[in-house]
Amino acid sequence: MAKKKFYVVWKGNKTGVFTSWDICKRHISNFKGAQYKSFLSKEAAEEAFKGNYEDYKGKDTKSVQLSGEALKKYGKPIIPSISVDAACAGNPGKMEYRGVNTETKKQLFIQGPFEQGTNNIGEFLALVHGLGYLKQRNLNLPIYSDSKIAISWVKKGQCRTNLQITSENKVLFDFVKRAEKWLKENTYTTKILKWETKAWGEIPADFGRK
Q1: Is 22 annotated as a binding residue?
Q2: 146 is annotated as contributing to ligand binding
């Protein structure tokens, strides 16, 4: 059964929170510059309606399922900051990672694709790359990742993957060794923070391939 959705119309023939696409469509049809989004909970939709369309434009609001009170608990992401993410076609499979400006989504760095990698390895490498990127530029900004595993690996200073080294992924593991060496030889004050997907939607660095 399809999940029920709630529709917010910020600009349209009639504004508000509506309980079906047919009703929403009626209120935005033939309205130039209509602003609307769908949500999976009434609470999230009502909370969004109190705000501005620009806060939700381009975001995966379908993942925002928390109540208004829960959303308030998480607050909003820290700006300025950078966000990192990885994408992997298969497990293992072809993997790449990147970092972006959290607010503008401007790409700051990207690596890959690497053969026979995993998403967790990519998330780990993305975080370490982000730490080096910020330190090299003397920037004191937090880094967001939606991977608890990668965050824990970075804090432990080691990529604790069970993936075996092969001739296909040797280049990838060379990157892993360099990342671990960087963590061992460098100190940093950068805050590594968990991106709260349920409250904020997909992380800005997401490759959009889900």
Answers
A1: no
A2: yes
Q: What percent of the chain has pLDDT over 90?
A: 71
Between 68 and 206, name the one with better pLDDT: 206
Is residue 182 a contact partner of residue 132, using CB atoms and an 8 Å limit?
A: yes
**Contact predicate 24/53, CB 8 Å:** no
Instruction: Check whether 69 is labelled as a binding-site residue.
Output: no
Residue 206 marked in a binding site = yes
CATH level 3 topology of 73-194: Nucleotidyltransferase; domain 5 (3.30.420)
* Cα dihedral across residues 163, 168, 172, 176: positive or negative: positive
Provide the pLDDT confidence category of residue 1 given band limits of 50, 70 and 90: very low
Superfamily classification of domain 6-65: Ribonuclease H1, N-terminal domain (3.40.970.10)
Q: What angle do CA 144, 40, 203 make, to 5 degrees?
A: 15
Element (H, E) at 38: strand 35-39
Q: How far apart are the first and last CA of the chain?
A: 21
